[in-house]
Amino acid sequence: MRRFTWFNATALTLGFAFLYLPMLILVIYSFNASKLVTVWAGFSTKWYGELINNDAFLDAAWVTVQVGVVSSTFATVLGTMAAYVLVRVGRFPGRTLFSGMIYAPLVMPEVITGLSLLLLFIGIGLDRGIFTIILAHTTFSMCYVSVVVSSRLVSFDKSLEEAALDLGCSPFTAFRLVTLPIIAPAVISGWLLAFTLSLDDLVIASFTAGPSATTLPIKIFSAVRLGVSPEINALSTIMIGIVAVGVITASIVSKRAAVKQQQDEQAAARAT
Amino acid sequence: MAQTVFAPWEDPNEKPLIQFKNVTKRFGDFTAIDNLSQDIYTREFFALLGPSGCGKTTMMRMLAGFENPTEGQILIAGQDMAHVPPNERAVNMMFQSYALFPHLSVWENIAFGLKRMKMPTDQLTNRVEEMLRLTRLTKFAKRKPHQISGGQRQRVALARSLARAPKLLLLDEPLGALDKKLREETQFELMDIQEKTGTTFVIVTHDQEEAMTVASRVAVMDEGRIMQVATPAKIYEEPNSVYVADFIGDVNIIQGKAQKTSADGYDIHWADGHEPFHAKTSLGLADGQTGFIAIRPEKITVSADKPEGAMNAVKGQIVDIAYLGNMSTYHVKIPGGLVIKAQAANTRRLSRRAFTWEDEVWLSWTLTAGSVLSE
């Protein structure tokens, strides 16, 4: 084990401060009694109470969750299919082009993605609202899903699928009964990634949202333009809390599963 | 009553279960299987033996239906298999990596193929239990594959592939992942199970000892062609080419010019100024043609003096001794620089060994000990 030196300690502190100080300030001021964001006037939870009564924020939150769940589900289905084709089906004409095109949205500036979708929706006369946000989010998050799932599929032992075929499965049944359960963790993390991206997204959503549906990031952004209110700090703190709980739970669960697997394997090796 | 020897390949009335008819398989420019024809019979334990890249795995994958021949036909029980997908073949395969489904228990792994057949539940349960008993896995039925040892996984893979009672079972390097001792035990288990179930087994292996132990016939392959197909004893005693002789076990190859001396007797002139070696073969060699004598180390006798009346004898010097416990291999350099390996059982204690490094010894063997080969 490495020794704990002053240099290490300083580097660690600075690094963590850089990452978490802004968030810490936000959390602290969400409990500020004063209406002025930068002046501390004692501890209070009143902004949380006001938040619950703010229908505009609650509506936006509900739209965001709906968009997140539906779009990440579509993105997961499409992204998994794309990944499967790219990894499993050998060479076919235009394979390189196809795989390049799948990953292009990853590096495409969001403004351009948003603008092009906006033009498309106007062109085909689709009214902007929750449906168009879902479509837009599905489009850009499916390539993230496809990256996550295909990296799992590359290390997937192809003979497992062959064994399923050999034991009487049709190719689709083999996928459903063998491939999918085994790659499920990657598919789930792909879904979570897509969901997070959808929750985060401001740029694409503001291009594709209509007056009938606004997502939370759009709402926060427009509210902040009129001045930062402690209410927004409270809302952001709640979001940080939800994300933190999610991430910590996921890592504890996967760590426990890994430890258990390792113990089982050691036990099996001893039993030989 | 005399026991009849199992040799359906010698019976002209026997119908083969598998027929390869002029099968060629190419991957791009690479020819994996080169115009190959071969029959395999019901209840056979047929081994495909060869170095990696010789096409043995491709042959097996074509039988399973994962690859289609580029040219030629494969028939199983008389039916052309060209457009039959793997899930509709009465063929099951045991994979080299075992390919056990990690998310299913041992029981569910074995039941997997039966469920696809829509077997009624009570029948299915009986069949799975029977398979568990056959492979001595009853205790482990509820475990997941990562909770059992390598040897047990191997048996699960075998049980799973046998559960559907296939006409033909393919085994791809089935024992490769096991250590030597377990491998030897499992070889006998495999033979036992093959006999009990009466299934035709085709095994792919690069381990010649394994092929010799388990198989009724061995096919030695090289570069997409079968070099020789015969019983293990015949392959060992009467290889048809230097390649086969060299691939199976240890062998000394002595090259020389052949000279016919009688109906089936030949002299092989291996070095100028030395007496030729004498050997018998049914092979027709022309006078002056290059011939090879292939002789196994254990068939050569090492002695201090020239044995009287020996058909073949040559003097040499010991350059190396490999002590293997039960026997020793002497590396003896004969005139012309060729090193001949000769094996002798260590019937006496090591300290009393008759020969040591640098000793001059005589090597001798009988007329029929070696085989004469032309290529």
TrEMBL record, chain A:
| Key word Transmembrane present | yes
Query: Membrane spanning segments where?
Result: 12-31, 60-86, 98-124, 130-154, 174-194, 232-253
| Stored Pfam families | BPD_transp_1
Give the UniProt family note: Belongs to the binding-protein-dependent transport system permease family. CysTW subfamily.
Where does it mainly reside? membrane
- Which named protein is this? Putrescine transport system permease protein
Query: Transmembrane as a keyword?
Result: yes
TrEMBL record, chain B:
This protein's GO cellular component annotations are: ATP-binding cassette (ABC) transporter complex
ABC transporter domain location is: 18-248
Native organism taxonomy: Bacteria, Pseudomonadati, Pseudomonadota, Alphaproteobacteria, Rhodobacterales
- What is the reaction catalyzed? ATP + H2O + polyamine-[polyamine-binding protein]Side 1 = ADP + phosphate + polyamineSide 2 + [polyamine-binding protein]Side 1
What protein name does the entry list?
A: Spermidine/putrescine import ATP-binding protein PotA
- Key words of the record: ATP-binding, Cell inner membrane, Cell membrane, Membrane, Nucleotide-binding, Translocase, Transport
Share what the entry says about its subunit structure, partners included: The complex is composed of two ATP-binding proteins (PotA), two transmembrane proteins (PotB and PotC) and a solute-binding protein (PotD).
Q: Name one GO biological process term.
A: putrescine transport
Task: Report the GO molecular function annotations.
Answer: ABC-type polyamine transporter activity; ATP binding; ATP hydrolysis activity
InterPro entries in UniProt: AAA+_ATPase (IPR003593), ABC_SmlMolc_Importer (IPR050093), ABC_transporter-like_ATP-bd (IPR003439), ABC_transporter-like_CS (IPR017871), Mo/tungstate-bd_C_term_dom (IPR008995), P-loop_NTPase (IPR027417), PotA-like (IPR005893), Transp-assoc_OB_typ2 (IPR013611)
Q: Which family does it belong to?
A: Belongs to the ABC transporter superfamily. Spermidine/putrescine importer (TC 3.A.1.11.1) family.
Which major enzyme category is it? translocase
Protein EC: 7.6.2.11
Q: State the protein's purpose.
A: Part of the ABC transporter complex PotABCD involved in spermidine/putrescine import. Responsible for energy coupling to the transport system.
